[in-house]
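name: query_chain
kind: protein
chains: 1
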Amino acid sequence: MDWLHHLSVGWLGLIVLAAAYALTAAIYVGVLALAKGERERSFASVSPGMLPPMGLLFGLLVGFLAAQVWSDANQAQLAVNREASALRSVVLLADAFPGEPRARMRLLVRRHIHDAVTQEWPAMAHDRANLTLVPTPLADALHLAISLDPRTEGQKTAQREVVSSIQDALDARRQRIIVSQSSVNWVKWTSVILVGVLTLLTIAFVHIGNRLATALALWVFATALAASIVLITAQDRPFSGQFGVKPTLLVQVTPR
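structure:
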């Protein structure tokens, strides 16, 4: 289902709505087909008091999942903000070492941002990024910073700050890759969908005596079910889809 995460919200909504309505129609037709004689009386005897706890349980599950995906998105954005801020500090502090060291540091920062945008972002969007490979440009920048030969107190301070900023950028990069691997697992999805289906069945049983009421009640809850699934799916992966975190801030701090 990886392709779902890369659809626009409009197309995602249409697909999920179609699936929810198809499932609801199958439940409606199936319950009506089975509601004959004694079975109809058994269905009608299902207590309407079951609906409030079922709805509450469904709402709690959706709320927990929504809290998770929003938290992941916030952590992803904070990691990108930290990385961009650290790289900007490296570029500014490198001015304390004019000539070849400054030019070399700017080149390495620019190369790291280019690699992050062109290689790491697509990998994170498809949940393929990992921490196995160390970013070569940042590693080279750290080695360059450590090997600098400061001659003044200002350069000594700048060297310490450059090393610290590069380490902050490396840590922020690790955090964004870790967060990119976070998503709603299949157990949680199964729980939400199962509770939704059981709620649809309960609605059909409770209103079995009135077909129009059954259809209307099922339509309302199916729409709510689809909206909940779209809400979670659209932000399930922090770096995928229309609302995924973009590398805009990194591009903005690219040294010219």
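note: The two ends are 40 Å apart (CA to CA).
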